[in-house]
From TrEMBL:
It holds the Pfam family Flavodoxin_1. Residues 256-394 form the Flavodoxin-like domain. SUPFAM superfamilies: Flavoproteins, Metallo-hydrolase/oxidoreductase. It comes from Geobacter benzoatilyticus. This is FprA family A-type flavoprotein. In the N-terminal section; belongs to the zinc metallo-hydrolase group 3 family.
Amino acid sequence: MKAVEIKKDIYWVGAVDWAVRDFHGYETPRGTTYNNYLIMDDEITLIDTVKYDFAEYTIKNISGVVDPARIKNVIINHIENDHVTSLDRIMDLAPNATIYISEKGKKGLDRFFDLSRWNMKTVKTGDTITIGKRTLEFLETPMLHWPDSMVTYAREDKVLFSQDAFGQHIASAARFDDEFEISESVAKLEDSVIDYYANILMPFGQMIKNKIAEIQTKGLEIDMIAPDHGLIWRKDPGKVLNMYLDMANGKARESVAIIYDTMWQSTEKMAVPIAEGIRAEGLDCRVIKLRATPTSVAIKEFWKCRGTLIGSPTLNNILYPSVAEFLTHIRGLRPKNRIIGAFGSFGWGGGAVKEAYDVFKSMGLQTVEPGIQIAYRPSPTDEEACFEFGRNFARQVSEYHKGF
Ligand SMILES: Cc1cc2nc3c(=O)[nH]c(=O)nc-3n(C[C@H](O)[C@H](O)[C@H](O)COP(=O)(O)O)c2cc1C
Ligand SMILES: [Fe+2]
Ligand SMILES: [Fe+2]
């Protein structure tokens, strides 16, 4: 990839990571990109860097536009490893550049690099720098998604450099939303936005609403959103803003995800009539076996659906480990506005379904009780009971969905 001009004199100079499938434990079946941006003005300004093993790529891309030694300002919007770990390589080439960063960012960056050798300036919400024809304005976005996160707004160009917000883990030759929609599809792009939100931003819905409101109150017009991963929103930046607002406001489909695991397929045998019962009520239903599915995909599907049924056999009196692991992820993501229930096969004392409900309650989720448990293999009568369980759950989901 070469540098790509995204607006007059503003270049994408990042790297495409086609091969990554495990991104800090989050599966990325579509790979990702590390986006950073070079603004050619009187003071040449670089926004963010890339992951350390991609340093060569960004240096090459920058060098295709300008000698990196001429960079005057480096803005660090957040200090996560995938965006700062080639900062030292850039600073070796532009040692007199000034780094602009939030106060918290500076404290954290100190853990990565010896900062005493660099010019550092801390900035806060409302601060601006003039780099020639352009004014760049900073807006802190603490906990979205790191404590030091901020975004940078290029006033004259109306471009929001949004760090991870509004990004997607997609590796592609396309750089822009409209290009990707033609080469791949709108649905894939939307799915990747939901994936990112569900796996990273789910806990921060209220903050997202507040920040978007702050952007609107400030009257920042946004012509383009340039995130740190995936496609740049040039055709319709409002679309991704609305998707975020919708998700933060609890938008979900009136549908059900059945997320389960199984040792000897009895819990799996229960999932089939349960799914049929859900369908019989007219709701869409997707069935996901945990050990056959990347966790990030299961989390995404959980998030898309208003209702979820968790299926687990009992192993040594408790939940099956892959199910417990999934629930641990969900617990940390603190979902809201979802309804949930549980089912499973057991042999003697049982315990998995009860433990699942304990977890649901600790999360404050709306539950449908009781769940359904079957000893060993489900009989035809048990399958009938599972079908009815599915029907009833679907009805409860529809009822609950009316509140949104
Ligand atoms: C290693 C192992 C440990 C088990 N521990 C328990 C247990 O503590 N309590 C219980 O009720 N059943 C226990 N079971 C029985 C399973 O819950 C039972 O076989 C169930 O039908 C398995 O469902 P599945 O076919 O969906 O895996 C255990 C089974 C295995 C293989
Ligand atoms: Fe990040
Ligand atoms: Fe990132």
